[in-house]
Fold these 3 entries.
Entry 1:
Amino acid sequence: MNSFRHDASRTTVLTFQRTLGIAVACFVLLIAMNIPIIATAGEKLTVYSGRAERLIKPVLDDFTAKSGIQIELLSSGTTELVNRMKAEGDRCPADVFITNDAGSLEMARTAGLFRPLNMREVERAIPPQFRAADNSWIGLSGRFWIIVYNTTMVKPGQLQSLQDLADPMWKNKIAIPNAGSEYLQAGVSVIRASLGDDRTRKFLEGLRDNAGTQVYQKSSQIVDAVAKGQIAMGIVNHYYVYRHLATQPTAPLAVVMPDQQEGGMGAIMNVAGIGVLKHTPRMESAKLLVEFLVAQAGQKMFADLDKEYPLHPEVKADPALVERKSFRAALVPLTKLAELREPTMQLIEQVGMR
Amino acid sequence: MIAINRSSGSALQLAALTSAALILLPLGYVTALALSADPVVWYRLWSTRVPELLLNTVTLAGAVAALTLVLGVSTAWMVTRFEFPGRRIWEVALVLPLAMPTYVLAYVYNYLLGFGGPMEHLWQLVAGPQARIFSPQSFWGVTLVMALDTFPFVYLLTRSALLSFNVSFEEVARTCGASHFYTMFRVTLPLLRPSIVAGLALVILYVVSDFGAVSLLRYQTLTYAVFQQMTGRSDNQAASILSLLLVILALLFLLAERWFRQKSRFYQTTGRYRAPRRIQRSWPYTTALTACLATVVGLAFGIPAYLLVAWSVSPEAQAILDSRFFGFVWNSAVLSTLAATAAVLVGLPLAYLASRKPTWLNIGCLQAAYAGYVLPGPVAALAVLVLFLNVIPFFYGTVLVLIVAYVLHFLPAGLQSLEPSIQQITPNLEEVSRTLGLSIRETWRRVTLPLIRNGVIVAWVLVFLQTMKELPATLLLRPVGFDTLAIRVWLEASEEYYQLAAPSALLIVLVGLPALVLLLSRDWRAA
C-alpha cells in the first residue's frame, strides 16, 4: 500500500516536471522561431500600412492572386509606423510602406527610409506633382477634405468655405477628426500655408468650440454619425461619404467641396502613396507591387472600391463623385507637407484640440 | 538554510536580481525620460492637456467608485441576507461580468445606447419620439460601462465579509432599541468598511489604467492620452511625462487605501460567533429581489453575451471565420503561452528567495515586481519600448519586446498565487530531504516543485488569460503578423462593425470564464 502511494506521487511529480520541462522547451523554441522573422525568404512581401485594412487588403489580395507573391500586412497608425521604421532601421522587416498622407511619406523620405524608384511605368502613369522629387515615394490615389452634412439638418448653400465652420452658429453641430490624425494635420498645414498662422488659429479655435466632444478617431464614424442625424455635419476625406452612400444610397448625406468661391483657397488635397524601403532584399517583388498599383487595373480598384480619385490620368473616378475637373485644389505642393508638419502640430496643441 | 548552499543560492540570487532589473529598468527609464524633459515641454503639457486629463480621470474614478459601491454592496446584501429561490445561481452569476473585458462591454454599449440604438427606441416609446438618452460616448456612458464591468470586485469582497460577519453586533444594536435601518447604517456597514474600501481600491485602479473602454467611447483620460501621444505625435517624452503623472496618481490611490485600512481595523473580541440567519420573505418581496438582481446581471453580462452570440452567428460574422481568423486565435494562444511561461519562470526565483532568504535585497526584488500593479498597459508598453530602443535596439520589433511588456504588466497577478504557495510549505521539508541525502536539485525537483505545483499552475493560467485580453501593449508592440483576438475586436469595434468584432469578443469571454472559476475557488465560501 505504502509503496503504491509512493509510486503514485512519484508519477505525478514526474508528469509535472515533464510538463514544466516541455513548457520551458516550447518557450525557447517559440522565441527562437519568432526572432528570425526578418530572415524569411521566398516570394513574400511585408507591407506596413497606415491605411485602414479594409481599404487596402482587397487590392493587395488581388495582387497576390495575379502575381503569386504573398503579402504579410501590418496595419497600424501612420505616424506610429514611421516611428517604428525609423527605430527598426536596417532590421525593419517591412519591404514596402503604404500610407494615406503625403506629409508622412515625405518625412519617411527625408529620414532616409526609402529607395528612389527609377521605373518608366511610374513616370508614365503618375503625374510628377504626385510623387517625391526623386521618386522615393509615389502617390497612388487622391482624396479631398470635404464638408459632409445631413440634408435634414443643414440647407444647401449655407456652407461654402471651411472658414464658415468656425462660426458660432454651428456650436455642437460639427464632428471633427482627432488631433493625432495625419489628415487633420495635413489639412491644417495647407490652411496655414494658404491663409497664414493667425487666421488658421482663429479658425481652429472656432472649430474646437463648435465640435466640443464630437472628436472622432475614424472618419467612417463621422460619416455614420452625420447620416444618423446624431450631428449635423463633419469634416472628412471625401471617399468615406461615397463608400457610405454605396452601401446605403438613401442616407440623407450631401457634400460641399469647400473654398471654391472667388479668391478661395481651393479644396485641400492629399494622396495615399507607397514607398519601397531602402534595405529590402526583395526589390524585384516590391517593384512588381508598385507597378501593379500604378497600372490602370490597380488604379481602377482604388477608384471603384475605395471611391478615391485615381491619379492615373486615363482612369476615371467613380461617376458618383464630384467631377474632378469641376473644382480646383489648394496650391500647396504635397512635398511641402512634411516641413509644415511640426509647426502645425504645435499650433494644434496650443489651440488645445483633442 | 540547508536547502540553499552557496553556489545554487547565488545562481538563484542572480536570477532574482535579473528579474527585478527587468521590471525596474523600463520603469526607471520612463521616469528618467520624463524628468529630463525640457521644462518647456512640461509647461506646454500643463497649460494644455494635463488639467483636463487629470480632472477627467479623477472624476471618472470617483463616479465609477460611487456606482460600484451601490451596486456591489446592495447585491452582496441581497444574496447573503435573504433566502429566495435561485439565490445560489445569482450568487455566482454576479461574478460573471469579470469575464468581460472593458472594450467588449464598451462596444456592446456603443450599440445599445448609441444614437438610434435599441435603448433609445425603448425610451422613445415612453417619452415621445424626440426623446434622447445619454450618449455612451459621454461621461455617464463611460461611467456606466466601467461600473457594470467592475462592481463584482466590491460585491465579492463585501459578500465574503458579510458571510463571516458576527450577528451579535447587530443584535446588541437592536436590543438597545436601534431600528433596522439605523442598525444597518451605523453598525453593519461601518464594520464592513475595510472590505468595501479594498474592493473600491481595486475598482479605482482598474478604471485609472483602463484603455479599452475609454478609447472606444472616446473619453479622454491619462491612460488614453499616453497612447495618443505615442501613436499620433511620436512624442515619447510627452508620453512619459503623462505616464509618470498616471503612476503617481495610481500610487496615491493605493496609499490612501492602505492608510484608510490601517485606521479602521476591527477585531472579533469574543470567541462566540454566530452567522446571521437568512430572512425568508413573502413572494412579492422575493420577486422584487429577483428582478433587481436580474437587471444588474442582465445589463452587465446577460444582454451583452446574448448580443455577442447573436452577432457571431450572423452571416457577416460567419463569413470571416476562415483560416485568417484561426490565425488570430493561434497568435493569441502563442503569445499568452509565452507570456505565462515567462512570468512563472521570472516569478518563481523572486517568490522563493523572498520567502526562504528574506533579506532586504530579496524582499526588495519581490516588491519591485509588484510595480506592474500601478502600470497601465500603454505605460508598460512605453517603458519597454524606450528601453529596448535605447539599450538593445536589436530586439525592437520582435516578439521578445511584447513578452517583456506582458511580464512587466502581469507579474503581480502571477506572484499573488506563487507567493502564498511557497510560503505555505515549511523549509523543514526541504531540510529533511537534504539530510536524507538528496542533492539540492533533487530536493527542488522532488520536494519543492511538487508541493507548489498548484500555485504554479494557477499563476500560469491567470497570466495566460490576462494576456489573452490585453489590448494596448499588444497594439503598440506587436510584430508583423501578430494580430490577436483582442486587436481584432478593437479594430472592428472602433469602426462600429459590430458583427465582425463579435466572434473574437465571444471567444475572449468564453476563455475568460475558467479564470473566474480559478479565482473564486480560492476564497469562495458557499453559504
Note: The domain at 143-268+340-351 of chain A is CATH 3.40.190.10 (D-Maltodextrin-Binding Protein; domain 2).
Entry 2:
Amino acid sequence: MNRLHRFFRTPEAIAGALILALLIAMALAAPLLFSGDPQAIAGPALLPPFHDWSLPLGTDRLGRDVLAELFHGARTSLAVGLAAAAAALLIGAVIGTLAGFAGGLVDEVLMRITDAFQTVPSFLLALAFVSIVGPSLGVVVAAIALGAWTGPARVARAEVLSIRERDYVAGARVIGMHPLEIAFREVLPNALPPVLALSSVIVAAAILTEAALSFLGLGDPNRVTWGGMIAEGRTVLRTAPFLSIIPGVSLVLTVLGVYLAGEGVVESTAVRRSLS
Amino acid sequence: MTRALRLLCRRLVGSVFVLLIVVIGSFLLLEAAPGDAVDAYIVSTGGDAGMIELLRHRWGLDQSELTRLANYLWALLHLDLGQSVTFSRPIRDVILERLPTTLILMGSATALSFGLGSALGIYAGARPGSFRDRFLSIGSLALYAVPGFWLGLVLIVVFAVDLRWVPIGGIETIASGKTGLAQATDIATHLVLPVSALGFIYLALYLRMMRAGMTEAWRQDFVLAARTRGLPRRRIVLAHVARNALLPLVTMLGLQSAQMLGGSVVIESVFAVPGLGRLAQEAVAGRDTPLLLGIILVSAVLVIVINLAVDLAYAFLDPRVGASEASA
C-alpha cells in the first residue's frame, strides 16, 4: 500500500497509469464490443468521424469501422509489445547471467555476440528476419526481441559480476550445488531488479517497432495494427487525414503512457535523492 | 598520440571479431531464406533442370555449408557482395550509389538532434525542478513517444500539402537540370522535412541525457567551489556544469548511430528519399535477400567506423580515457 501511495504521488505517474488502464480495457473489450471481424466492411467508404453514431470514428478507404479497428489494434500493439519485451528480458537475463557467472572464454564469446547484435541496426535486423521467415504475430515478436535483448544482457552481466563474489554464492558452492543451479537459482533472481527496470523502455520500443514494421507492410496480415492503419490512411492523406491521425495519436499516447508509468514505478521504488 | 593509437588498435581487433559474427549471422539468414541465387536467376531468365544443376555447380552452391561459408567470406574480402536480383547489378554498386544520401540525411539529423537537444537540455538543467525543466522533460518524453514515420506524415500534411513550403518527397526536382549552388539548395529544401522527422525523435534523448547529467553535476564539489569563488551564474552553468555533462552525450552519438540507421528506413520510405533505408525496403518488396543482407553488412561497418571515430574523439576530449592502460 505504501509503495502504491508513492507511485500515485506525481501527476505524471497517474496520467501514465490512466492511459495504460484505458489501453488494457480497450484490448480486453475489443472482442466483446466489436465481436465481428474488424476487417469486414461496415458502411460506406471514407465516412468522416462524428457523422454517423453507429460508426463514431467513421470508416476507412474500404468502408471498415475505424473504432473497431482501433480497439483491435490496441490488442495487437499491447500483445506484441508485452510478448516481445518479456522475450527480450528473458533472453537478456539468461545470456547476461551465463556470461557474468561463467567468465573467461564463455563471457568473451557471449559479449562479442552481444556487440554484434548491437552493431546491426535492430530495425534492419527485424526487417530482414520478418521478410525471410514470413510475417505472422509470433515472427514479429521474435524479430523485435532479437534486437532488444542486448540491453538487458549487459545490465544482467554487470549485476551478476558483483553478486557472484557474495558470501551466499560461495556458500552454495561449498555445499556442492551445480554451477548452473547456482547461476539460475541463486544469482539470476537477485540480479533481476535492475534488468526489470528496463522493461518500460523496452515495451515502448517494441510497440514502436511493431508499428513501423506494420507500416512497411510486414505485420501479420490477418490482424489489425495501428501501423497498418496509418499505412492505409497514407494513401488518402490529402482527403482523409483523420485516418492516419487517429491511430497515430493512439500510438503516441500508448507509448507515452508506458514511459510515464515506468518512470513512476522506478521513482517509487528507488530511494529518491532530494534536489538542491 | 600513442594513447589514442593504442586504443584504436585494441578497438580494431575487437571490431574484426564483431564483424565476423555479423557476417556469419547474415550467412545463416541467407541460408534460411527460401530459394538461392540460382532460383532467383532462373526466375528472371528461365531455364531447365539441367541448367539449374550446372549453375549450382558453377556457383559452388552444391558444396557443403562450411565451404559455402568460406566462399562467402572470400567474396566479402574482395568486397564482392553478390548480384542483386531486383536491380540486376552488383549489390556493392547499388549500395554505394545510395549511401551518400543516407549519410547526408543521418549527418544533418544528428547535428539537429545533438545541437538543439543539448541546448534545450542545458536550458532545462540550468534550473533542475523548475517549471521550464518539468515542461521540457515531459515534452521531450512525448516527442520520444512519437513514431518517426507518423511524425513524417504529419509534417507532410502541414508543411507540404497545406502550407506548400517544401516539396512532398524525393531528393531533388526531377530533370530540373540544376547544377552547383542551385542544385544544393534544391536538395536542401527536399531534405528539410526528412531531417526534421528523424532529428526531432532523437532530440529528446540528448535533451534528457544533458539534463540528467547536469542535475548530477550540480551536486559536485567543484560547483560549490565555483559558487564560493563568486563566479557569475551563467559561467557556472556553461563552463562547469554543462561541460561536465557533455561527455556522455558524445558516447551516445556513436551508440545512437545504429538506431538512426534503422530509423532512416521508415523516414526514407515516407519521404521517398532514395537512400540506403529505402533500398532496404525495396529489397524486402523484391524478396532480394542478398541485397538486404548486404545493406545490413554495410550498416554494421558504418556503425563500427562511427563508434571508432567517437572513441577517438572521446580520448582526445578526456585525457583520462585509456591513460590507465599506458603502463600495461
Note: Residues 66-102 of chain A form the longest helix (37 residues).
Entry 3:
Amino acid sequence: MKDLKELKKIEEFSNQCMKCGFCSFFCPVYQEEKMETSVARGKNFLVKQILAGQQEFTPEMADIIGKCLLCKRCAANCPAKTQIDRVVVAARAQLVKEKGLGAIKNFAFRKVMANRKAFGKYARLMQKFQWMMPTTEGKIKHLPDFVKGLGKRNFPSLSKTFLRDQVKPVYKPQNGEKPKMRVGFFMGCATDFVYPELGLKLIDFLTRHGVEVVVPEDQNCCGAAIYFSGDLETGRMLADLNIKAFKDLNVDYIVTACGTCSSTLKDYQKYLPDTEEQKERYTEFEKKIKDSTEFVIDILKIPPQDFKLRKEFEGKTVTWHDPCHLVRYQNIKDQPRAILKALKGIKYVEMPNADMCCGMGGSFSVYHYDLTKKIAGKKMDGIKATGADIVVTACPGCMINLIDNVLLNKMPQKVHHFLELVE
Amino acid sequence: MLKESLISEFQKIVGKDNVLTAPEAMKAYSYDGTTSWIHEPDVVIFPTTTDEVSRIMKLANAEKIPVTPRGGGTNVSGGSVPWHGGIVLAMTRMNKIIKVDKENLTATVEPGVVLQDLTLRLMKDGLFFPPDPQSFLGATMGGIISENAGGPACVKYGVTKQYILGIEVVLPTGEVVHLGGRTLKNVVGYDLLHIFISAEGTLGVITGAELKLNPLPLAKKTLCVVYDDVAVAGESVYHVLENGVIPDKIELIDNWVINRIEEMMPIGLPKDADACLLFEVDGIPEAVEKEAEKIAEITKKYGAKEVRVAKDADDANKYWMARRAGFAAVFGKAKTVFAEDVTVPRGNIPKLINRCKELAKKYNLEIVVLGHAGDGNLHPAILTDINNKEHYDRALKAMDAIIEGAVEFGGVLSGEHGIGLEKQKFMKKVTEPAVINMMKNIKALIDPNNIMNPGKIWE
C-alpha cells in the first residue's frame, strides 16, 4: 500500500461530500467548462478513488486537481460543509510528494521565492529589463507579440525602488505620544515589488492613528502560491521564518495590506501542520494576524464616517470587489463596505457578483490564462453594470488581474486598493 | 471500449473539445446524486445543437451503443448513471435560454439550462417556473422534465408535467420530433408529450422545451407550527387544506431533524417538540395576511402546541435554510442513508408516519421523517452503514416495509425521484404486469435497439 499521508489527513473531509452537485452552481471553472472534472464533486470523487487505491496521479489527474482557483465559493455554499479547499491542497501536496514539483516550480518556489534575498535579486533583475516590455498605458506594460503563446497580458511594472529598500525598522506614532499599540507590518511580495506606495500608505495611516509600526527585515513571502500548489515543505519553512521574524518584536498584531497574505498567514494552522507542535505554534501566530480592512475597523475602531476621501477621488462612483481571501477565507466583507458607504464625496454602488472570484487564483492564471480571462469577463460584466469609475479592493493579486482584464475589455475603470482612496 | 474510429466520428460531429475519453473523466461521469450506483461510460460527448445530437444518435443506433443523457447529475435514483457503459450525452453545454415570452407567460429553453439560472433570469421579468426540485442549484431542465421533478411548492402549483407545453426530442433513430406545442390547450391525438416527461431518458434525448410560467407572487409569509405529536402534525395538513387555504408549501420536520438544526444553526426551535410544520403562503399581500391568520387559527384548533409567524423575509428565510440544512444533516450523520420518496394521499400521512415509527422500533433503527407533507410526499430516511452488514440488512427490511406501507395506504413508491436503478425491485412489486408490459412495448416501439439509457426502470 502506498503512503498517502497527506490525503489521509483530509479523508474525513472528503467523505463528507454527499454528491448533491450543488457546488456546480458556485464554481467559476465549472460555469465555463460545464464538465464534472471541473467541479468540487468530481475532484473529490477522484481523490476518494486515489485513497481507495483505484486511481493514480496521472498527468490528467494532476491537471484536474490543478484546475481549481481555491476560491472556496463551493465550500462556502456546501450543504454538507465539505472543505474541498483542504481536499484539493492535500491532493496537490500528495502529488508533489509522489512526483516532485517539476523544474519550473522547483526553481521558482524553492530557489527564488523561499529566499528573501534571492527573490529580491531576481525581481531587481526583471525590473532592469522590463523596459523591453511594451507599455499599455502609464505604468502598465504587456507581454510583447513574440511571446504570444502566453497571451497579451497586461501587468503593472515593478517599482523602481522596492518597499524593502524604503522602510525603516520602526515608526513611532506621528503625534509623538505613547503608542496605543505596537503592530508588525507584513509587506508581502506584491506590495514589496509592485505597490510599495501601498505599504508606505498603510504605515503612514497607522502611525497617524497612534500606532507604533515595526517592520522586521527578515520577513519572507507569505507562501500562498507555494503551499496552495502543494509544496507544504517549503510552505512550512516560510511559515517558520515568518513566525520567527515577528517573534521577539513584542507586537500586539501583525497587519498587512494584502488580503491573500493575511489569509495565508492565518491559515498556516489549517493547511500546513505535520505535528501537534506546529499546529499549536501556527494557531498562536494566527491570533495576531489582521488584514488592513479589519484592523482599521475592528481593532482601531475608527468609525467609518471618520475616514476622509482623497481629493482626486471626489465625485467618483465606486464599487467593491471581494477578494476570495477576504470574503470567504476570513469572512471580511462588511468592514470595507462600511468605509466605502460612509466616505463623503463618492457614490458607492454594490456590484452584482461582488463575491465572485476575479479568475486569478494565483498560479492558476499562469497555467489557465484563457479560463482566467473568461471568468474575469463575468466579473467585468458585473463592474460594467454598476457604472462605477473605480473598482476598489484590498488584494494586490486581484488588483493585478482586474487591471489586466479592464484593459483587455477596453473599459474605463481604474482599480485601487481601499487604502489609496483615503487620507 | 468503443472503437477508435467511432470516437473520431464523434469528434468530427461535435469537435475534439466536446469528447472526453480519459479514464479520469469516465470516473467523474460514473455517478449521480446517489451513494452506491456507480458505472463508468466509455465516452462522454457534449453536443451543442439538436443536429449534433441527431447525428450522434444515428451513429449510436447503427452501432447499438448505449446512450445515457445526463444534465447536472443531481438526480437521486441512479437515473443518469451509464449502467451499461457506452455514451454519456452530457447536455450541460446546450444551456441557452432562447426566449422569455412575457405576453404568453412562456419560455423556450435548451435542456442544459440550470433551474436556478432560469429562475434568476425570469425574476427580471417578474416571472417564475413553479416546480421547485430542491436540487435547483444543479438540476438542468432536461433532467427535470425527464424525471418529472417536483418539490415543496407542489401543494399549490403541482409538478413539472403541468408546466411543459412542448418539447423537442431526438429519437434513438436520430429523428427529431416535436411533441405538444406552445398553447395551454392541445388535444391533437395521443398525448405523447407526457410519455416522454418522466421517461427518465429511456425514450429519447430532450433537446428543447417550451415552458409555462407564472407571474411571481407579490407577497409571501412563513409560519412555523410546533407539535407534540408528529401524527397530529400530519393531520393538520388536511385540516388546513379542507378549510380553504392552499399554502404553496407545507414541510414537515421531526424531532431528530429539529435537534440537528438546533445543533448546526440554532434558530430557537423547541428541542422537545415531536415535529414542526413549516407553512408558506404566497399571493397578493392582503390574501397572504388572511391566509396566514387562518392557518394559525386552524392549526391551533387541531392540536398545535405553538404557532410562530415569521416577522419578515429574513426571519422566514431562516426557517427555510433550516429545512434545507436539516436534509443535509441526515446525510452527515450516517455512513449510508436510504432517502425514501414514498407518497401517499394526503389524508394518510399520519398513518404513514406512525408506520415509520413502528418500524424504527421494530428494527431498532433511526428513521428520520421529513418531507413535503403538503402533497403526501415524505422522505423517511433510514440511517445505516453499508459496511455493517447486520445493521444494513435490518435497514433494507425496514425500507421494504415502508414502501409496502405506502402502497397499502393507497400511495406510490416514488413521488419525485423516479425509479432509475434505486427503485427497480419495488416497481415490479407494485405495478400490474400488464402495465409494465405496455410500458415495455412503448419502449420497444420507440427504441427498438434498446440503446436509450438501458438498464433503467426495469431490472
Note: The mean pLDDT of chain A is 94.
